[in-house]
Amino acid sequence: MRHGKKFNHLGRKTAHRHAMLSNMACSLIEHKRISTTLAKAKALRVYVEPIITKSKDDSTHARRTAFSYLKSKEAVTELFRNIAPKIADRPGGYCRIIRTGYRLGDNAEMCMIELVDFNEVYTAGDAKKATTRRSRRGGSTTKKAETTETVDAVAEVVEETPVVEAAEETPAVDETPADEAPSTDEEKKDEE
After folding, report:
1. Is the pLDDT at 147 greater than 70, yes or no?
2. Does the global pTM surpass 0.85?
3. β-pair partners for 95
4. Is 156 buried (19+), middle (13-18) or exposed (0-12) by CB count in 10 A?
5. Which residues pair with 76 in a beta bridge?
6. SS3 helix, strand, coil % of the chain, rounded to 5?
7. For residues 3 and 38, what is the distance between their CA atoms, to the nearest angstrom?
8. Rounded percentage of the chain residues whose pLDDT exceeds 70
9. What is the pLDDT of residue 67?
C-alpha cells in the first residue's frame, strides 16, 4: 500500500529520477525558463526551491550542498553569483508554473516553469510604485518645488504668446464644392 506517500516517482527508478531532476534544475538555473510536462515541473519545483533558498547564504558549505544536488559547477556559479542576489529579499516561491496546453503526440499537459524574478514581462509592469500618503501637514518640499517650477514655466509661455484677435484677421474663405473646384492653375486664372 502507498498510503500517505505523496512523492511523485514520475515512472522512473530513483537514480534516473534524481539525475533527471538534477539536469532539469541546472537547465532552469542557466536558462531561467524551461518547457516541460506539468508533473515534471511540479517535481522540479519541490527539488529546486530548497537549493535556491540555500544559495542566499554564500558560504562554502552552501555551495557544496548545492553542488551535491546540481552536479554542475557552471550552474552553482550562476546560482550564487546572479540568482541569489536577485532573490535575497523573497521569502520563497522562486518558481512560477504557467500551463501552456497539451502536447500533440501523447496529450500530456505541458507547462513552462520559470524563475519569478527573471521574467521581464511580469516584472516590468510590476515596478515598485512610490507610495504616497496624505497628511494634514502638507506635501513634501520636492512636490512643492516641482509645482512652482511648472507654474512659472506656464506663466512664461503665456506672457510670450501674443494675443491675436481672431475676428479681425480671419480672411473670408471661398467655399466651393470639391467637384466644382478648379483642377489646374490655368482654370483658376480664367475664373478670376
Report:
1. no
2. no
3. 115
4. exposed
5. none
6. 50, 10, 40
7. 23
8. 65
9. 98
Is the Cβ–Cβ distance between 55 and 84 less than 8 Å?
yes
Task: Give the pLDDT confidence score for residue 173 in this predicted structure.
Answer: 56
List Cα–Cα distances, 185 to 43, 180, 188, 191, 192, in angstroms. 80, 14, 5, 10, 11
Whether the CB-CB separation of 54 and 62 falls below 8 Å is answered with yes
- Domain ranges within the chain, ordered by starting residue: 14-125
Task: Give dist(CA 174, CA 52) in Å, integer.
Answer: 77
b/e per residue 27-64 (b: at least 16 CB within 10 A): bbbeebebebbbebbbbbbebbeebbbbbeeeeeebbe
CB 118 within 8 Å of CB 90: no
B/e letters for 103-137, b = 16+ CB within 10 Å, e = fewer, are eeeeeeebbebbbebbeeeeeeeeeeeeeeeeeee
Of the candidate CATH numbers 3.90.1150.10, 3.20.20.140, 1.20.120.530, 3.90.1030.10, the domain formed by 14-125 belongs to 3.90.1030.10
Please provide the average confidence, as pLDDT, over all residues in the chain: 81
Across the range 19-47, mean pLDDT stands at 97
- Residue with the three cell numbers 512560477: 96
Q: If residue 109 lies in a helix (H) or strand (E), which one and from where to where?
A: strand 109-115
